[in-house]
Amino acid sequence: MSRCFYFGCWNQPGHYIRSADSRHVSHDVRRRVESYRVEGHAMDLHLDGTLAPRRNCDGKICWEGQGETAQDRSRIHSDSSECAQGEYLLHTLSNGFTAIQWWDRCQGDERGACNSTVLLEGAHTADEMVAALEQHFPSVLANLKKHGVELVNVTLKLDE
Question: Distance between CA 85 and CA 88 in Å, rounded?
Fold first, then answer.
């Protein structure tokens, strides 16, 4: 069975990583799961908001973590805006996990830049990722539904 984690707000401000039993994880697990490396890039990136979809001035989907340098990531951040809550991107990460991440102000913090991430060990499809969210973190989905937010995969719109 693949290990599943959630990174984001949990009914209060602050982004934390939780295991499928909703508990905080150990420092070693957190260090392994909260950072990733993009293929061909030299430095590790932190999950917080770097995988969520953004829309650049041309209307194309991008994500901050695709920038090769800190300056590139900063430029992507300043030259784009957050996509709608619930729109997510699917990523296969160098840390051995597949992730979906979306902007999310439904989990106890309504400020900008709040995001949620589901991480599932191994390579998985978007449908498998949403099923893992539903199975392991149903309260996250319940909070989204309560606020009228639906999860929508925008991964295929990257090249549009």
Answer: 8
pTM as predicted: 0.87
Measured CA to CA, the distance from residue 69 to residue 41 in angstroms comes to 8
Q: Are 153 and 88 in contact (CB under 8 A)?
A: yes
Q: What is the mean pLDDT of the chain?
A: 86
Token pair listed for 141: 């989905």
| Average pLDDT of the segment spanning 12-34 | 74
Task: Name the one residue in this structure whose structure tokens are 């799961």.
Answer: 33
Pairwise pLDDT comparison (23 vs 98), residue with the higher score: 98
Write down how long the chain is. Answer: 160
Q: Where are the domains of the chain?
A: 4-157
Bridge partner list, 91: 99
| pLDDT tier at 40, thresholds 50, 70, 90 | low
Q: What is the DSSP letter of 57?
A: T
Asked if 124 contacts 98 with a C-beta cutoff of 8 angstroms, the reply is: yes
- Concatenating the DSSP letter of every residue in 75-142 gives HHHHTEEEPPTTEEEEEE-TTSEEEEEEE---SS--STT-EEEEEEES---HHHHHHHHHHH-HHHHH
